[in-house]
Amino acid sequence: MSFKESITTVLQKYAVFEGRARRSEYWWFVLAYSIVSGVLSGLGSAMNGSGAGTLFTVLSGLVALAVLVPTIAVTTRRLHDTGKSGWWQLLELTCIGSIIILVWTCMDSQPGDNQYGENPKGM
After folding, report:
1. In angstroms, how far apart are the furthest CA atoms of the chain?
2. Cβ–Cβ < 8 Å for 76, 116
3. Per-residue confidence band for 43, with pLDDT thresholds at 50, 70 and 90
4. How far apart are CA 121 and CA 82, in angstroms?
5. Which pLDDT score is estimated for 21?
6. CA separation (Å) from 70 to 44, 76, 79, 104?
7. CA 10 to mean position of chain CA atoms
8. What's the pTM?
9. Are 66 and 11 in contact (CB under 8 A)?
10. Residue 105 has what pLDDT?
């Protein structure tokens, strides 16, 4: 899945918590969000004290708020692809949980169909 396809798919499935998501879909979206967030935050910090700095800081917060639901949804589908429930995301509220979620999102797809649907790789 390409960068553009991944972003389009995640945003089209804005609040879809069913099914499975390939690693490429998940990680391209994470990369895109990280770049946008980093640029906006960086510009806000660089222009600190001015009206433009405040604008970029507010925009960064609005982007984070806008992609909150799609981020949770694509992470749920990614965990489904590895055979785990999306509820495991609650582990991220703990210190060690973020590491566990990181490892699981890096894992390859569970071969064949699972309880969450068909393998998106078609294997």
Report:
1. 55
2. no
3. confident
4. 12
5. 92
6. 24, 10, 14, 18
7. 8
8. 0.89
9. no
10. 94
